[in-house]
Every structure is written in structure tokens, then in C-alpha cells.
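Note to self: user wants both folds in one dump. Writing first protein now.
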Amino acid sequence: MSVVNLPSSPNGPGGDVTEHRGEPNVRPGRRKFPHTGWMNPGETLLSTSRTFQLWRYGVGHSELFLRSGFRPQSEPVELYFEGVRSMHFDDLDFPELTVWRDEDVTVENDTARFHRLRIELRSPKHTGVVVASRLTYIDGTYPDGQMKWTVTAPGGEEIGGGPRPTCE
């Protein structure tokens, strides 16, 4: 498990794997670690012959979009990452993409610990990595497309000196 120390706590949702039909989908092989919540030993989320390209990154909302289907004969499909903490790409095109969920990353500061997804974008010539809070697969384009599935990082917990002070 990787640990990244931050000067301030990031915020983001907690949770598990969810399908948008409303049924929870806890995948087999997941393990519960007492101090870190659900950690994933690694699994393939998507394997396709489509080519995906980096479409857009929004710094203000930390959103990343990869899109496939730029030709008129192909319906577009998007991978939508939210709460992006880091990313690394050697190339911006991902032919024959396999999306692999690696072991979750833990981000912590003095008062809180947060978990993030570590997603590998594997193609025959290179592998990219995205660390984010959530990944959604969309048939069509955001925001009008149909969300098919979502993977969300587990929630965080308070550590260190107790709860954070509040302003009154």
C-alpha cells in the first residue's frame, strides 16, 4: 500500500463498487483490513478493443475524461475520473485498453486518512496511472450519457489528535 502525506485533508466520498441499477456489487476476493477499510487486491474493470484518448482535464474540479468513439460509426464511451489526485501518462492514446484497479492508495495528514483508487490504464505500448476518488463508465458523453457502473474509493477515518475543531 502506498502512503502519500498531504498538508491539508482532501475531501471526497467513501463507498464501494456500485452499479447504477441500485444493487450493491461487492466483488469477490476483497479483503477487510482493520485500519484501512476495504482494500482491493487487484482486478480488471474493463477490457476493450476500443482506443481511448485523453479528452479533458479540469483542474478546478479535479475531473479527467478519457473518450472513445470519435468516428461517426462509433457511439462515444467515456471514462470519467473524479477527485483526481495524480496521473501519469507516457502517451495520450490508449489502444486496446484494459482498465485495472490496483491496490488502493492511502493519503493522510495529521488528522485524517483517506483512501483513493489507483487505476492503471494498460495498452500494448504503455501504461498510464490515475489516482482518484471515483471512476465512472458512461455510454455516451457526460452529462447526458448513461452511467453504466461506478467504482468509488472507501471512506476515510480520523486519526491523530481527535476530531477537527469547528468554528463557532
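First done. Writing the second protein, which came from a different request thread.
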Amino acid sequence: MRRPATQPSPRRTTTAMTGTILRALFLVLQMFLVFNTSAESRHSEEKCPTKKEIPSCKSILTSTDKEYTYQVLPSFYAYLNMDCEHGWYHQNGTFIVDSTVHGSGEKLGCVVHMTPQNLTVSTCMNLQWQIHCEQIQYNCTVNYIVLQQETSVNVPPEDKQGSPHWGIALIVLGLVIVGLIVGGSIWFWCQNSGNRTRYNVAGQSNQA
């Protein structure tokens, strides 16, 4: 006699379906991670133009009131709509202004007008523009170099790199003087202590 076909138990069917669903979800998650990693790598591998040469101050002069406009490179316009931090700095790293739409509002006195795409200042000088996109791991610094600057450029105090050599020299000199005073005092005290000891020993010998 033929045995009746055994039906799979509901528990085994549920376990098999759960395993299939989990494997499908795992594959989808792997595909998402691979796509996201490749997208981030493409962003991070994009070229960062580190220098923008400006022929002369006249080429960026925008008015008769000695106002000069520096423009963000068009290749960065797409990043300006992202959640990125960007702003203008002096060549020595001194902060000038936050160029984001919802920036802090802090700026130096040389700033005349600012938009995310450009900066207008009252002085023709070398500047620096920085952008940091943490979400896509993209960072770039562009140095704006004016090849022919005006001879009488009023550089803001914040742009001058103060030399700390005199301050360091004074500190070292003060430490040397203090060391000499302390050393001399110790030597003088030791000399007096030795003289007093010899005097006491000599006095005891005479009394004996």
C-alpha cells in the first residue's frame, strides 16, 4: 500500500519563509552599502582645485569705491546646496566670514557684501575659501592668489602674521635671569653656611 504524502508542518513552513525573507533583506542591505560607499568614494575622489590665480586687482574690481569681488568656482555650486560648511579666510587662516546661508553672521570689517557664491571686500589681497562636507567626506581649500597686487594695499591687522620671536626671546631671557638669581642665592647661602660651620668648629677648638 502507498503511504499518504506527509504534509510539512506549519512551523517548518514559517521557519523557511522567515529565513528566505532575512536572506533577501540581507542582500538588499549589502547592495545599499555598496552603492552608498561607491557614491561617497566618488565624491571624495573628485578633484579639489587648490589654487585660483587672479591676474590683477583690476580684474576683480567691481566699483569705483575700491571694492573687490571674489567668486566661488562654479564647480562648487552643487555643494552650496548641501549641508556643508564653507567660508572665507585670510591666507594665514584668520576667519573672515561664514558664507553659508544660515551662517553665524560674524565677519571682519573688510567685508562689504557676501553671498554663498561670492565675497566683496574693500581690500585687494590674497584670500582662502574652505568647504567641509562631513556627510559625504569631502573637504577642499582654494587659495585665491592675486598675481599683480597694488603697491599700497591696506592689509587688515587680522591678516598680518605677527612674529612671536621677540616675545619668546623675552620669556627665555626672563627665565635665564630668574635662574641666575636663584642659583646665585643658593651659592651665596651655601658659602655662608660653610663659613659659619668652619667658624663654629674653630671656636670650639679654641675653647677646648
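Dump finished. Worth passing along: Helices lie at 10-45, 77-80, 165-207.
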